[in-house]
Amino acid sequence: MGKITHLNNILIIDDEDKLRQLLKRIISLEGFDVTGAASLHDAEIILQKEGTDIILCDVKLPDGNGVDFVRTLKAKYPAVEIILLTAYGNIPDGVQAMRNGAFDYITKGDDNDKIIPLLHRAMEKVHLSKKLEQLQKQVGQHYSFESIIGESAEIKEAISLARKVATTDTTVLLTGETGTGKEVFAQAIHHSGLRFNKTFIAVNCSAFSKELLESELFGHKAGAFTGAIRDKKGLFEEANHGTIFLDEIGEMAIELQAKLLRVLESGEFIKVGDTKTNKVNVRIIAATNRNLQKEMEAGHFRSDLFYRISVFTVFLPALRERAKDIPALARYFAGLFAAKTNKPVPVLQKDYLDALQQYQWPGNIRELKNVIERSVILNENSLLTAANLPAELQNEASGFSAFDLAGVEKSHIHKVLKHTNGNKTEAARLLNIGLTTLYRKIEEYQLS
């Protein structure tokens, strides 16, 4: 890729000195930084040394044709916009220039009043392209392997394997318990791979019924079923040339597995209610917390599909198997939620971290994140101690029996209800319990 500048730079390529100097003066008055070149060779030297944002280029030059030069320039400098100057309004030249990637073309002399508005429109496109490029870089950094926290041997091994497969187009199966970060890994694989600048779509296969999941994945034709009033694109179409992440693939109905297998084998699928075959080019990353080999033996998962999706398998360890990483993860989440709630970043005391490391974390990183969020929200100073933790964590860390927990639990629920100003739905979310359970606890502890 060519050099991208951050100024409103314009390069004029024309062998007529008087016209080049006139254009330079006119355009400079608009606040643009203008450079001139009398030939394509001179222009190449300027582009290699300085770069530019927009090029105004004559069609007929001593050492080449501007129409052909557009194709060469766009291949080397895709972010640069090119406007061609034609002497006689040659329509075929203009059409070919646009096909080659030119922003527009104008006729010398006749269209002088159009140059400045055209330059402003082209510059708007340049600035938008630069913003999009910057956003793509930020997204890439956010979802990179470097953003995955952990120094334990277990997580390093998973990252190493995922890095190796990321630069290929191979189908990947991510395995491990719920909450171990499978979507984070899928995003990192996508953004480190060949399709990093294409669409990434994640779908949880367990969140839909068989019929609805089929429509979501493959789309449907109008009239395919009650309520299908118009054609709908499926997620495979939306992800064409990109990546689709099928989370909890072990929950997919066996009938749908056959359609997915066809996509993997031939890139083809048929929409619900249609007879026409559609083609897509999609990388598939799948994930499961189930033992798919046992599911095969039980007749719940197709063996041919399993062998296609498990070409490369990456196992993600449970949080209890990488307790060494818990302090770093806890500090990261504490900083994240402190920023979200406009609070100072708290200091995590030793007893707090010890309790976190001693807990078994059945919900893995997802549960840890939830616990840290509650701790930060309820914290009234800049320190987090074991007393800020939910009762079950304090219980495991201190060795109390369940009979000792009533007072701690009552106090904790009271604090959460106070924080939410009595909003029981929000309190249940923060406590990570069902609303019915919260009402039962309120009645049990007479907190109403």
Could you characterize what this model shows?
This protein is of the alpha/beta class. Helix 10 crosses helix 12 and helix 13 crosses helix 15. The chain starts with 8 loop residues before the first strand and ends with a helix. It has 19 helices and 16 strands. The chain is extended. The protein has three domains: 9-139, 3-Layer(aba) Sandwich (Rossmann fold), CATH 3.40.50.2300; 143-315, Rossmann fold; 319-444, Helicase, Ruva Protein, domain 3 (Orthogonal Bundle). It has a five-stranded parallel sheet, sandwiched between helices. The protein has a five-stranded parallel sheet with strand order 9-10-13-8-14. A two-stranded antiparallel sheet has the order 4-5. The chain has helices at 17-28, 40-49, 66-76, 91-99, 112-142, 153-166, 182-191, 210-218, 235-238, 254-266, 292-297, 303-309, 326-340, 350-358, 364-378, 391-398, 406-419, 424-431, 435-444, and strands spanning 9-13, 33-37, 54-58, 60-61, 64-65, 81-86, 104-107, 172-175, 200-204, 243-247, 268-270, 277-279, 283-288, 312-315, 347-348, 383-384. Residues 1-6 and 400-404 have low confidence and may be disordered.
